[in-house]
């Protein structure tokens, strides 16, 4: 049995690597990612230029928020105000404003960056609690239709690529459904968050796989006691008697004081997944960081550090992940975040960027980006 498991592990590791890449890389393809939010959301940013800086630093994939609340503020085409009509594309009865997202997807494609689309936030017309974007929808089918609209736009047969033939076609094939639903702040439900989230997942997963069978559906990232919450999600699926899969990868946000402890968190998650007979499903770290807000941030003090400390943590955590990825089945790791303002905030995560966006409206490197660039080169060549 032990020999059989070893063979399976070897085959799994080889499957994640393209032909001829095993000797050139110490980690799987598209392993190095960053969260692409914050200052990058500003309409004045030259995203093509900034994404080029990402690529030169070794970034292979970006985690891009796709806020349903902004994409579909109107339920039907008939609800759209005449003054707003020009911004909307209506397909299969779903009116979507792709104006800003087209720019983001186009910039990423021009720079050869893979995109993980993070679909979150509920428009008021669909929410259980109108006006709270973190309220789940009353009807999970509405969320599933938004997922379908995004695949119709940016997936392999997406209208975006037809409408923009000059942009290199790089379809979005990876979709993350919501963010940190175990925290009431980000998934405002009464009762079991796991039950409500499983109910949201089921139709969205089925819709995504029907629209693009080759897509990868990633669960929402789980922070804190993530191994307990992963177990709760499996149990909720069982209680609800939901058949089939709910996700193709499990996302974890292993924030902690030391990189070695981040790996320990992932080992606990892996053990839970294996216990639920989900041994082959990979883990994705969709957020990890050690913000450089010491002396300025008042939250999350366990992992707040200095700019020099942030650079050290970048090297340490990716080195630790590279050493453990095969046993963990760890497929990707996204640093939170690419850029932050690094000022005037008590929130630690506002100091977590590899770069900072200055008051003068320019991006400046922090020591962490040098560490990121060095570790990507070491582990991918």
Essential attributes:
three-stranded mixed sheet, 381 residues, 39% helix, eight-stranded parallel sheet, globular, alpha/beta
Structural account:
With 381 residues, the chain is an alpha/beta fold. Helix content is 39%, strand content 15%. The protein has 11 helices and 13 strands. The chain has an 8-stranded parallel sheet. A hairpin with a 5-residue loop joins strand 12 (355-357) and strand 13 (363-365). The longest helix is centred in the last third of the chain and has 22 residues, at 307-328. It starts with a helix and ends with a helix. The model is unreliable at 1-23 (pLDDT under 50).
Can you tell me the overall shape?
globular
Question: Which structural class matches the secondary elements?
Answer: alpha/beta
Instruction: Give the H and E element order.
Output: HEHEHEEHEHHEHEHEHEHEEEEH
Rg over alpha carbons: 20 Å
Percent of residues in beta strands: 5-15%
Strand order of the biggest β-sheet:
7-6-5-2-1-10-9-8
Segments where pLDDT lies below 50 for 5+ residues? 1-23
Tally of individual helices: 11
- Give the helix level as a range of percent: 25-40%
Give the CA-CA distance, first to last residue.
Answer: 34 Å
| Biggest sheet features | 8 strands, parallel
Mean model confidence by pLDDT = 93
| Strand elements, count | 13
List the helices and strands and how they pair.
Layout: H1 2-15, E1 32-35, H2 47-56, E2 61-67, H3 68-71, E3 88-91, E4 94-97, H4 99-110, E5 114-120, H5 140-154, H6 159-163, E6 174-177, H7 193-211, E7 216-218, H8 226-240, E8 250-252, H9 259-275, E9 283-288, H10 307-328, E10 330-335, E11 339-340, E12 355-357, E13 363-365, H11 367-380
Parallel strand pairs: 1-2, 1-10, 2-5, 5-6, 6-7, 8-9, 9-10, 11-12
Antiparallel strand pairs: 3-4, 12-13
